[in-house]
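Structure tokens please, single chain.
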Amino acid sequence: MGNQGPVGPAGPLAGSNTQLIFNDNGTADGAGIYYDKTTGNVGIGMANPTNALAVNGTIKAKGISVTLDGWADYVFAPGYVLMPIAEVERYIERNGHLPDMPSTHEAMQGDVDLGSMQVQMLRKIEELTLYMIELKQENDALRQRMDIPAGREMPHED
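Here you go.
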């Protein structure tokens, strides 16, 4: 086996006082699993991880828990100012994305925080719900003015 270092239950191990590496060849090159004893960081498929867990590949899980700093239900609180839909339309025409959401360029520049993105998307869903309620109220008021009972089709011109 040459000078690959000690052999673990499934292959060669390499390491030092600050690193433990498990892979096919016992070196940090193409590290299978890399543990930095100094930082406590673990890399899977990569050496020198800069986060607590860094994975160079796809992660499959039955569930992922994310600790959040807040939630978006403030959208339903009294006093929440909903951007007028005409302003939203103008913003999208000018910027090509929703207000308070990252552009494609911004999202592709670095990492997207899963927790904060979930909160941002929920905020947009809740805002959409408020816009729909507003439209329903406007529709009901128009029906009433036109004396059209709910559930009946509104007349239309051909």
